[in-house]
Amino acid sequence: MCGIIGAVLCEGGAGALVDTLGEGLRRLEYRGYDSAGMALVGGDKTIRRARRPGRVRELEQDLGALREGDARTGIAHTRWATHGAPSEANAHPHICNGAVAVVCNGIVENHEELRRAQTEAGFRFTSQTDTEVVAHEICAQVQDGRDLLGAVQAAAAKLKGAYAIGAVAAGEPGRLVGARRGSPLIVGIADGGALIVSDVPALLHVTRDYLVLEEGDVVDIVDGAFTVYDAAGSEVQRELRKSGGDSGAVELGNYRHYMEKEIFEQGRAVADTLEGRLSGGHILEEMFGAGSGALFDRVKFVKCIACGTSFYAAMVARHWFESCGVPCDVEIASEFRYRRHTVPDGALVVAVSQSGETIDTLEALRHARRIGYRDALCICNVAESSLVRESDFVLLTHAGREIGVASTKAFTTQLTALLLLVIALGRRAALAAAAESELVAELRALPTAVARALELNAAVAAVARRFADKRHALYLGRGAHYPVALEGALKLKEISYIHAEAYPAGELKHGPLALVDNDMPVVAVAPNNELLVKIKSNIQEVRARGGQLLVFTAEGAGIRGGDGVTVVEVPSVGDAVSPIVFTVPLQLLAYHVATIKGTDIDKPRNLAKAVTVE
Ligand code: M6R
Q1: Residues classed as catalytic
Q2: Residue 315 Cα to ligand 1 middle (Å)
Q3: In 3D, which of 589, 546, 552, 547 has the Cα closest to residue 567?
Q4: Which CATH superfamily is domain 455-602 in?
Q5: How far is the centre of ligand 1, averaged over its atoms, from the C-alpha of 210 (Å)?
Q6: Fold assignment, 255-453
């Protein structure tokens, strides 16, 4: 999704500035975007700009002209289209009257009203974006005699919505002003310069020192020195932080795509998520941090909020929580954030997110606090994310950076982390010590089981050919494996563009069975548990209507292949971790179908890695 980088560099000239901003754009690419641009302010008090739809590498062809001259201040942006198609005209930075250039993340909700007023005031619009009004508003303030800082502060006061802004002015060549409300903005502090970025990894090629702007903050960077003001305009100090993040690019190695690499990293990722968190037949509660014991003692109900794949992980966890005697409810964050309800005593809100920057999840967490949830815990993969900063307790998944837009190792590590949380709360409810030991034993065996599931790669690649020319697919699962079916269908949709829907298998005869014919592939997730006999019946219902079945079942479950039924046997594991192991072949299936179709697997159309707008 949209990304911002801006910098004032006191040394190195325009070439170094273009390199710094360009590398920042490349580091923001993983978020997903469809156009990119850059603008520099020269010592001659002019703004020069390059922007175009497509990839950063295409923009690089236009950056030569910007390298000439003595510019030391610039802003750059990757845009994920919301208002207006991906086009050069809609790409940021937006320039107003040659005087002000602006990049903006988020959505300005009152843009129509501002556009009307600005049009009447004589401003001319050249884009369909909601953010061009920001450039005009700041420009109007500059025309009224304000300096850039005053202009951004005055303009920000008129904006509604969630946004982060970077602005430069032709008349102030050494100055860069940033502002945030709702969307993150980070200030990087380097020798001889300062930066603004929307995401910590985008500054690690320059510095590890940074601070996070708080809601309503404005940062004024002049010749590399910076001052932060709060929403009331008072100068404030924000905590200086040092990033421990990996500053290098993630290498693809011998893999064709990051998604493939990330699928095959799952044995290691799960092992890393468990590292130092188990002891004998127990979990070590220290992993949750100081005060977590007292928190867990008072928890009587768990509310999970999440989006997409993370939501499906929480759906699996609900089965685990409830089987340990911990009442649990799971809700899509974008729905929860607008819903009022009575908060039960002892409620803990658990936000699950790979990126920790998903705006719906962040806003749902803030909403939870407003309506009375006293305690918030997050399960997250990015230590330096907004979600981690805003949560009282944090359990990090140690998946490592996930680049592919389609989440894979994030999901299996989220499930691993959630099972640790289930044990921590369950041992205070109905989970006996012996049962805890069994769960811990299952967790210890998990990395090996995942590695064995990955050995199904060739078998899954062979069956994937049958899906490549299909337009639709159905996925079936029951119990804790129904969310696994949902996740499998989401993977297929995202990267192969085949319409796939998952149903609880028992629901099939209540409608979706009408879709089944010999052109409808049906994927069934059939572990060897107490629901096996039920799903076997559901498989027969499909087969009786000519449906072509691909059944992922456990070794020894007794489901045999034959006419219209292909069986792939998944390694036999304990009941609790079974959803994690069954996920692996479904990821492989989606991956192989997409490679046959030749789609852009790591950056599927229309999608973004971090969804930072509503
Ligand atoms: O970073 P998050 O886990 O909060 O992201 C939530 C969803 O946007 C994400 O899982 C999305 O559904 C993925 N593209 C799924 O592969």
Answers
A1: 2, 609
A2: 14
A3: 552
A4: Glucose-6-phosphate isomerase like protein; domain 1 (3.40.50.10490)
A5: 26
A6: Rossmann fold (3.40.50)
